[in-house]
Amino acid sequence: MKVKNVHERKIKGSKEMVESILESLGTRNDRIWPRNWPPMRLKPSKEKLGRGGHGPIRYRVKEHVPGKRIVFEFEQDRLSRGLVGVHYFELLAEGSDEFIVRHVIDAKLGWPASLLWPILIRPLHDALLEDALDNFESAVSEMPENAKYVHSPYVSLLRMAVGG
Fold this sequence. Notes:
CATH architecture: 2-Layer Sandwich
Distance between the termini: 27 Å
Strand content: 35-45%
CATH topology: Alpha-D-Glucose-1,6-Bisphosphate, Chain A, domain 4
Number of domains: 1
Number of strands: 7
Number of helices: 3
Structural class: alpha+beta
Order of helices and strands: EHEEEEEEHH
Shape: globular
Strand order of the largest sheet: 1-7-6-5-4-3-2
């Protein structure tokens, strides 16, 4: 089974600001990753094509184009077993001060991911990514509290079950 899962948000801000926010991903000063999710950890760093992950999802940095794109390749370990492919963040210019921030999973699902994707991985992943995009948008501009993503009851239940 093939999966292409895309989350994106249009962001207004200076090129320097949005690029610096993207570059903060996976660092001690991360401005994207939601604090209420297992943190993204990379060793040694994305600049040195480090390895790591978040919670039970494991990956390595395959490509890093500063301020533009960070590509991670899934490792066959823990909850990412059976996810064969990549996930990435990219920043696309839409004008002098408008950008698209995009996250994509492009993978084939083997065992056990083919079973876990629809019932566990996708719902949690989708919620995490919407929270991350809220953080990105909030870092650039004032985002009304009522505009932020709200987790479904199912996602809330899954998070309680897995300790998130």
